[in-house]
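anyone else get weird line breaks when pasting these?? whatever heres mine. first is seq + tokens for prot A
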Amino acid sequence: MSINRKNWQPSADIETLKRRAQYLADVRLFFAKRDTWETETPILSQAAPTAPYLDSFTTDYIPIGSHTTQTHYLQTSPEFAMKRLLAAGSGSIYQIARVFRNGEQSNKHSPEFTMLEWYRPELSLHQLIDEVNALLQQVFQFEPIIRLSYRGVFEFFFKLNVLTCSDEDIKECARQQINSLADDFDTDRDGCLELLMSFIIEPKLAALKLPLFIYDFPASQAQLAKIKYDQQGCAVADRFELYIDGVELANGYKELLDADELRQRFEDDNQQRRAQDKKEIPLDENLLAAMQAGVPECSGVALGLDRLMMLVLKKPAIDQVNSFSFDHS
């Protein structure tokens, strides 16, 4: 058996890994000062997120002496287990978790990465944005970050009110802005918006060096956030995303707490998965039971720590801020 004598070496240099360790210590101190305590939850679960855009890793548990297997999923986020802790009365909590997403690999993606996730029962969504801002300023020395509504971003770049315009208006905007699209391309409203965000808005944010919180997404993109009505009376998702240098770093919600609505969203997701010839995902009945028992009003956010480390340490690839790359793990 031949041995590649270079593959054993770390993908990040030791000085980078030491600086990463110090940043993680500073993050923990930041939350300790805010009476937000660190939690640990299982990495393996019998259920997983149903979102069609997420693909989970699976593994089989085989009890000793048994010939049956039980499918378990590696977590894409610690969200579901943390919400069960909230229902049990945990109060404000955070977690620095290793998470896994199948198929995602690039300079900005790894199938295994580190996520910082936290939940604050006492904060509104915009107060949580303030706290994310404080974390980035105090620990990572960023300047204060501006915020703009999803509607405002699209009006700024395209002069298009995406909350009130027609599906055809959005599709025509995508045709005009994205040269690589075929004339007969076909996708739904949210598909067009995602294309415009990925191909046009994110690169322009990167070119402008414009760090930005984007909030009040279309209601159809609520994911696990509450729906509310904005000042113009349009239904919007009470959620935000954070972009720095065109890189999406964080996704935050005013959390949906209605168990029946959550079950319906999970079932709708699985219907979309079937339409896309993807495997259905079992619903997390433990999470739904916790919702029925009563998760407190709260806001929560997940932040990609590896991507943040890339920006802070000025590294071009996610492998350069991790001890070992996925390919050489």
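and prot B, same format (seq, then tokens)
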Amino acid sequence: MGRNHGPRRWPGYAGLRLTKVRFGSITSIFSRSATPPLVVWQRAPALRIALFSLGALIGLLAFYIVYELGRYNAGYDRQAAAEQRTELAVQIEHLEKSNREMRTKLAEADTIRVGRAREQAQVARDIGDLQAQVGRQSQELAFYRGVVAQAATALGVKIEQLRVSAGARPNEYTVHMALVRSGRAESEASGTVQMSLDGTLAGAARTLDLAALTGGRQRELRFGFRYFQDFAQDVTLPAGFKPDHLAVEVQSSRKDVAPLSQTFLWTVENPP
């Protein structure tokens, strides 16, 4: 009955001891990790760039504000300047429109001027042609009058026609003249022809004979024909000489035939 019992052990002692050991281990673990590790954070370069850009933008804004305040204190009105620029732009637009209208009118005036010049040139050519035609008809009329008025027994020489054409060089011309018999052509008519040109030189009246017109090569023209004879005499006018009338004198070698004198208007056919 008597049992030797040793120290009394509680039934849950072993479990309590194990719990302590486990609790101590967990505590040691937490004690070792109680101090957090040191972490070094580095600022990104983008942040520094953003801060620098923001500072520069703020600096520029401040500079602009100071600039505007300076202009305002100096009396500069931004709204008035804008209105003035608008007014000047409107004036420029009006001036450009007026300039375009003036250029259009100038082009129309130039067109009208060119048209009038052409019309005047055409009228001048027509007048010249009409004058030449009238001159030829007058010569023909004078010729036929002379033929009709000439007596049956009379024997003479008449100028059938005379015309002037331009030469190859300036101031050079050719006088074309046709002589015919007025009356019966039973014998040959002979004689001489004298020419003289009336005009102005340097504002003074001057008369040039055939010797002056031919440079001394000819003083008169000789004719000898039975029915008719044509002449084509080249003449040269002095520089600046303005011809007016050409006088022609036909002298027959027969004493009983009176000389013939006739004046013609100096009209050049197809001038250069």
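btw re prot B: The first helix runs from residue 13 to 32. The chain has two domains: 64-149, 153-269.
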